[in-house]
Write a structure and sequence with these properties.
binds 2-amino-2-deoxy-6-O-phosphono-alpha-D-glucopyranose; alpha/beta; three-stranded antiparallel beta sheet; 264 residues
């Protein structure tokens, strides 16, 4: 696992976007895994800037969303399909038909999950999966005690997750109870993982993910099993890491071929 600690939340987004942009320049039809939530917003804004000012072309990029709410009416502005259209697909000039989201309004949700897995398998592997982490350690919507072998499936959102996401809805009870989410096994199939976290509220989850035991009680700790997991955090989110100085030292002394930000 590579842990990168930078000063500010803005720098987290810039560095992660540099890595992602470098991947797309290397492979214009790269398959990206897209996360929602506030954590990756700076990444998407920086990628949009690269598209507008640096000639980055995302027109052939293919993408799979991590998750989707169940039961929101079609076109609801907080459905992850709508959010991704608004903050990623349009600003990055992606082709909407190349961007896939689990169908949380399907009549047969189990079939929608199986179809989603089949589509990923037929297109993938996902080259680079973008991730945030919930305060309870969840990734995607894989809540604590999710199986590390899990695939895309229906989950019940934890009360803490519903409360955290209530800020996007008019009232807390409008947050759906259920979701479809890629499983931890699905996420671990991606070639590269890039997880970003900012702020003190994520410090405990980050420490458990990076330095705690590999345990389904902290789904993010599954990243310890992945051969190319990159965790990019600001100082506040890194504040409970035991080996912070070591991560700063290894990043400062990284070999030239890892300096993807030089290519932006
Ligand atoms: C959300 C999403 C996750 C996200 C996490 C943290 O509910 N399903 O993909 O990483 O919770 O959200 P935020 O980035 O807003 O803190």
């Amino acid at each position: 696992m590579q842990v990168v600690i930078v000063e500010t939340a803005a720098e987290v987004g810039r560095l992660a976007a540099a890595k992602i942009g470098h991947r797309v320049r290397t492979r214009p039809d790269a398959v990206l895994g897209l996360a929602t939530g506030s954590s990756p917003l700076a990444i998407y804004a920086e990628l949009a800037r690269q598209v507008a000012e640096k000639g980055l072309d995302c027109g052939a990029v293919r993408a799979f969303a991590l998750d989707e709410y169940v039961g929101l009416p079609a076109g609801h502005p907080e459905s992850y399909r709508a959010v991704l259209d608004r903050v990623v697909v349009g600003p990055l000039g992606m082709h909407p038909s190349n961007v896939h989201v689990p169908d949380g309004s399907a009549a047969d949700l189990a079939k929608a999950c199986a179809d989603y897995e089949a589509r990923i398998a037929g297109t993938g592997p996902v080259d680079l999966q973008i991730l945030g982490i919930g305060a309870n350690g969840h990734i995607g919507f894989n809540e604590p005690t999710s199986s590390f072998a899990s695939r895309t499936r229906i989950k019940t959102l934890a009360p803490k997750t519903r409360a955290d996401n209530a800020r996007f809805f008019d009232t807390p009870d409008q947050v759906p109870l259920h979701c479809l989410t890629q499983g931890l096994g699905t996420i671990l199939d991606a070639t590269t993982l890039v997880l970003v976290a900012q702020g003190e509220a994520k410090a405990d989850a980050v420490a458990r993910m990076v330095e705690g035991p590999v345990s389904s009680m902290c789904p993010g700790s599954a990243l310890q099993l992945h051969p190319d997991a990159n965790v990019i955090v600001d100082e506040a989110a890194a504040s409970r890491l035991t080996l912070g100085d070591y991560y700063r030292y290894t990043f400062a002394n990284r070999p030239p071929w890892q300096r993807f930000e030089d290519f932006v």
